[in-house]
Amino acid sequence: MPSATTDTTERQLRIDLAAAFRLAVRHGWHEGVGNHFSVAVSGDGKRFLMNPRWRHFSHLTASNLMLLDADDATTMQRADAPDETAWCIHGRIHALLPQARCVLHLHPPYATAVAGLANPRIVPIDQNTARFFHRMAYDYGFEGMATSTAEGDRLAAELGNRNVLMMVNHGVLVAAPTVAEAFDLMYFLERACKTLVLAWSTGQPLREMTLEVAERTAQDWEHYAPMQFAHFEELKLLLDREEPGYAA
């Protein structure tokens, strides 16, 4: 029987993940009733929470998130089976990368636009873009919607120990130890891509940072790591005031 501590931890993870869904809507990152977030609840990362099939992010609550097991081969035979693409991506990443506790996969406008370029790399032109300097993985193997274990295995292998995966011709994925860190990564990734798209749209040459300045700025971000938690907590306070039902 689960301990009180385990129950409390899962409850908090449910609240945090539900908050991430609601906040994604506020930032305009959602796409129809697709895209998925997940967070591990077990030590090995294989038991995880994820949004149910084809539910709009704005309707998700802490209590209606699904509890899944990456090792359960019967998952897709359930009456309430998750979305197939979500299972193939999140199920395999949680099965193979225990350090990837929280996984957010989206098709947000600016990051997805960058993912569709011949050169989808984020160029360091300001401190937000420099945050990702030499800190991203790239997957160039898109062959259609993720409906196979092989697809999930490839994405997990490409992500490896990185926290951000640019899924070329597809979208983006971030993985982090906590929901707060994953959300902050996604927030600044989309901001960075928006800055690049706006800069490219001027038609003028980009003024890239030197390699030394870009690396120093990326390291500066690492020193600011506690800000990620403050950012998420502040946004949750906004939800507590305006959409308290997310935590139900």
Describe this structure in words.
With 248 residues, the chain is an alpha+beta fold. It has one domain (4-247): L-fuculose-1-phosphate Aldolase (3-Layer(aba) Sandwich), CATH 3.40.225. It is 45% helix and 12% strand. It is built from eight helices and seven strands. It has helices spanning 4-26, 84-96, 109-115, 127-130, 149-159, 179-201, 211-223, 226-242; strands at 36-40, 47-50, 66-69, 102-106, 137-139, 164-167, 171-176. It has a seven-stranded mixed β-sheet with strand order 3-2-1-4-7-6-5, sandwiched between helices. A hairpin with a 6-residue loop joins β1 (36-40) and β2. The protein starts with a helix and ends in a 6-residue tail after the last helix.
Structural features:
alpha+beta; single chain; L-fuculose-1-phosphate Aldolase; seven-stranded mixed sheet; 248 residues; disordered N terminus
Summarize the model shown.
It contains eight helices and seven strands, in the order αβββαβααβαββααα. By secondary structure, the protein is an alpha+beta fold.
